[in-house]
């Protein structure tokens, strides 16, 4: 992990410019990290009428309308599940930022969002093979959605150094993490943790995001997200320069008690889910 004292001050400015999600989203993250009831989710969403209306509107798009449509939050949660509802909530609140292309990383429009959705789905699938979890599958899913959010802030400050992230640059023997640290004194995982801390997300959640490229330092959630991120790359939703440079940590497999067979099955099930639920996610077309 890099020394945050060496961080380029422009990163802090960039973090502050990212619009935080509504308070209701932070509260949802907190309750999804523990045992909860559907009524808890409904109560929190109902404190934000605009968000509730937007969620119901999104649930009644052509895709979901094929299932008969929804008229209440309870019906939406029962039909779609909390992970899908959380995905919709995050898409509504920060989706525009996630959908932008990140030119400095070589990530096309929708690329970050596609990879993040894939990592989220993989994280949830992986929890099926973990005998003991100190967090819920919904927390794993949400962490997968947000694990690379730090790239948004870094992309805004990488101007003249853009060429240094490209695969044909002299520094191309380094991983993206190493090159980020050499350019701006930090990396996207640490910046992601700072963003989520700034948004008042639970400390363990922000820490997991900050450690997913260095899971030997982290909690079990960081190990799971490290594996899920690798799975997303293996599935083919891998965008940007040096996107395939990360290796799967044997320590993470050991900590989560996951076998290679478990990883293979999770990848197959994740691919099947994405193919059935998300139009264009496995193509070159934007979402």
Structure description:
The protein is mainly alpha-helical and 287 residues long. It has a single domain (9-277), classed as Hypothetical protein af1432 (Orthogonal Bundle), CATH 1.10.3210. The chain has helices at residues 9-17, 23-32, 38-46, 49-59, 62-65, 73-80, 82-99, 111-127, 137-146, 150-155, 176-184, 188-198, 203-210, 220-235, 250-255, 260-277. The mean pLDDT is 84.
CATH H level, superfamily name: Hypothetical protein af1432
For the record, the count of structural domains works out to 1
Helix share of residues? Answer: 55-70%
- CATH topology title: Hypothetical protein af1432
Characterize the main sheet.
Answer: none
Classified by CATH, the class is Mainly Alpha
Overall SS class = mainly alpha
Distance between the termini: 34 Å
Describe the global form.
globular
What is the CA-based Rg, rounded? Answer: 18 Å
Blueprint (SSEs and pairs):
Blueprint: H1 9-17, H2 23-32, H3 38-46, H4 49-59, H5 62-65, H6 73-80, H7 82-99, H8 111-127, H9 137-146, H10 150-155, H11 176-184, H12 188-198, H13 203-210, H14 220-235, H15 250-255, H16 260-277
Helix pairs in contact: 2-3, 3-6, 4-7, 6-7, 7-8, 7-9, 8-9, 8-14, 8-16, 12-13, 13-14, 14-16
Compose a concise summary of this entry:
With 287 residues, the chain is mainly α. The protein contains 16 helices and no strands.
Descriptors:
globular; 287 residues; 59% helix; Hypothetical protein af1432; mainly alpha; 0% strand
